[in-house]
Amino acid sequence: MIPEIGEFSLIIALCLSVILAIIPMYGATVNNSLWMSFARPLARGQFCFMLISFLCLTYAFAIDDFSVAYVANHSNSKLPIQFKLSAVWGGHEGSLLLWGFILSSWTLAVSIFSKSIPLDMLARVLSVMGMIAIGFLAFMLFTSSPFGRYLPSFPADGADLNPLLQDFGLIVHPPMLYMGYVGFSVAFAFAIAALLSGRLDAAWARWSRPWTNVAWAFLGGGITLGSWWAYYELGWGGWWFWDPVENASLMPWLVGTALVHSLAATEKRGVFKSWTVLLAIFAFSLSLLGTFLVRSGVLTSVHAFASDPERGLFILILLIISIGGSLTLYAFKAPNVKSSAQFALFSRETLVLINNVFLTVMAMTVLLGTLYPLLLDALGGGKISVGPPYFNAVFVPIMSCMAIFMGASMSIRWRQTTTKNILQTLWKPFIGSLIIGVIFPFVYGNGFDSKVFLGISISCWVLSTTMLEFVQKFRHSSKYLTRLRKLSLSYYGMMLAHLGVAVVAVGITLVSVYSEERDMRMQAGDKVELSGYQFEFQGTKIVEGANYKADQGTLVVSSNGQQIAVLKPEKRQYTVKKSMMTEADIDPNLWRDLYVALGEPLDEAGTAWAVRIHYKPFVRWLWLGGLLMTLGGLLTVADKRYRHKFGVQNG
Amino acid sequence: MARMWLFLPVLLFFILGGLLWKGLGIDPKILPSALINQTFPNFKLESLKTDSKMLTRADLIGKPVLVNVWATWCPACRQEHAQLLQIANSKQIPIIGLNYKDERESALTWLEQLDNPYKFNIYDHDGMLGLDLGVYGAPETYLLDKNGIIQYRHVGVLTAETWQQLQELIHAL
Question: What ipTM describes this predicted complex?
Fold first, then answer.
């Protein structure tokens, strides 16, 4: 009964979305305020029914209702409860339901936090979101309902959740990521509404900005979590694989980063309006494309669930209607948009433009690399794969160039700055960063290293220019505390996010250059030394978990005779899926990780094991930087200027 | 004229859409085996039924055969089973089972319950032959000619359509 209620709620939500997509939009076109005012209650109704539907599926998982096919395929009675609940989004159908649920939550949020937006704008925005909801709900109901039943006979127990997904990282990673993906639908809806109404002004940018920033922050957070998860769960210490699905999340993030900056310029200076709209369309299009790539199974990937060409076709049609439609709308309406403000060559506007160009080019190269195997295959060129060498070769130089401009942008004003002024403020941090970049590899490593030089110089450059800008705010003031309080939260957010970039750059550079690893055959009592740490293997014992059995190794780590950690990596055999999993154990701190994973037993008795030991310097900085960027993004939204009546302040 | 540039994004997108549409028709699961036109790897493994009899590559040579990789832990293999029985009944080609990383007892019970389409089964408990063969995941099916040379590899469930294609290949042998 409960699953049927879920299915039925989904149908009602679809009906409400259809009404939401039509009535308020029509009302806005003919200027009928009664019809426009339907938008808010419809958005709320849609959310309620999506919530009911989502809870029904969660309930089915919680009580082990294996008559529901999706539950039977992704859960098991022995699965710990937290994984039963997160298994709701452990497969294709449930992920889509989560997608739809988050979309309705965003729609609800827009309908609540929009008291000051003119009614016709709000009606259009919510209508556009309703249209997106129609697409996804129809997709779910027609091709992939999570509530399908195994009746009359159903399995006595479930097939269990993929062991890789039985992990804390995977409880939070998909919702975070989807919050980001789907969040760009708000920026998209605002852009479409602005194109339709022809009101593309600073006020529009101001309405759209907080939503975009939140979505961007969530997406960044989701990517960071995903990277962290891959690092400790996949068992070989990598943190980024250029897997098609990772790329699918990176592309909207890159374009989203461009959008965040371009929106700032549009709000503050009234420039790049047409471009900003295009970016908003791109960011959401790439989110949809990401969904297509993951769900249609056109690319093989570790993330791909059951692939099904019929589903792929459905998403492709959705994609063509939504992206094709919005880009066509853009082509017709954009000429009405004029950027009024002028700016000089040496101005922050120019740097925002450069940043946008770099980020967009970046996103396009990632897109090309991701789709190239598919395109070549479609054109009959055979099967190939594009790997990390391509991505590293294009990504690193472009990102480095961008970071140089990024540092400079902090000290350059809007509109105009004189060349003399720029040189005066920037020569010291520039030279200083170069010097630190040269010295660092000698002090930390064993001699000069060009990669370390580049990475460290760039980090120092970004860090020092950001701090310099901050310090200069206090130059003519003695009342530090008042000034500190006077700076806006969005300013702090920006600082934090930029510092995050510097931190990530340090992490990437040092972990790529100075990582060390050893694959060893070890028996109880064997010792090995790596990067100044002694690892002593003390053998394995068998431990049992709720739904797995494991060989658990014990390694005592010591440094200069002092014991500093006991690591217990495991080799797990999940009983239902019969799959083996490597559970690494890590001794983390801010400066280095010691990472140990058990390989295969090398003899019958199980006394000798293949053991892999990694030394990963500064690897935590990667995620720390990602976290800083996420926090920065969230902080900007708390800025009080977004809480004021938007309409009253003019932009 | 400048207005025409604004149509560039939508134009590019439709080209991309067309390619994606073509891409949908391509199954990424079609993995051309690196062993096509090469001899089936050599092995020496027990038969599933009798512990004493050792099977080798010589047992596959003489006439064309299908080698089907299966296991009781693989739900898709259960799905495939009916099709295999049909092929076995058509008597066009013998099917040799490669029982992959499985337990002997449960495999035998499975064959008893679901009926046995296989001429005989190679018991690859450790998956070593699967490794040599480059098995991607069960089920997989290989077509061997009479000299034991791999002609075709199918990854995933053997459907009626794939069987149609296979028949053509078999007739061509």
Answer: 0.76
